[in-house]
Design goal:
Length: about 190
């Protein structure tokens, strides 16, 4: 049974959380206007409800100011997480690499290098999972494991898995889609 199937069957899952699995393929296939709507619905489920729409709807200047703030909050949250997570001395290098990758991600995204920032975001999410959960983060059932801890955490890592599949796909997703998906991911991590 796949992660979405097992989560849908779980009695601890809300109807809204079950809807996330149906929204992702709609988001990927959507045109610009529908994409914003699906992204907002997905972000509402995984993050703080009602806030994400401001990042994809409204004037360009307002959206840019909000995205700038979102990227700053995201960076500060990840930096805090990295600095507050205790690891063995031998594992300090991965923490340093994660911080370097975080800075490279932010630089790429701000510079409009969409495909590299998309790949870096996926790598960052995996590095964060490794920092928090160690070897368990590489297990095949990691999303299920996270889902048992917190459904939103499980949904987030399921979402990252969906992005990773897009990275591995033969055809590169459209820049607009990758930008929207990265924003959803950054928003969700900034909401924890």
């Amino acid at each position: 049974m796949s992660f979405p199937e097992s989560a849908i069957d779980d009695r601890l899952v809300s109807e809204a959380e079950r809807n996330a699995f149906a929204l992702m393929p709609l988001l990927v296939a959507a045109d610009d206007r529908a994409r914003s709507r699906y992204a907002s619905q997905l972000a509402d489920i995984m993050g703080n409800p009602g806030e994400f729409q401001h990042y994809v709807v409204g004037s360009s200047a307002d959206r840019l100011a909000l995205m700038d703030r979102l990227l700053r909050v995201f960076r500060e949250n990840v930096e805090l997480l990295v600095h507050k997570t205790w690891v063995e001395k031998s594992e300090e290098k991965p923490k340093e690499r994660l911080l370097e990758e975080l800075m490279a991600f932010e630089r790429d995204f701000r510079d409009g290098a969409i495909a590299p920032s998309f790949r870096r975001f996926v790598a960052l999410a995996h590095s964060i999972a490794n920092l928090l959960f160690g070897a368990q983060s590489r297990a095949e059932d990691f999303a299920v494991y996270c889902f048992r801890i917190d459904p939103k955490l499980g949904l987030f890592f399921w979402f990252v898995g969906e992005l990773e599949q897009q990275v591995r796909a033969a055809s590169q997703p459209r820049d607009e889609l990758m930008t929207t998906e990265v924003l959803v991911g950054v928003y969700v991590l900034s909401s924890f």
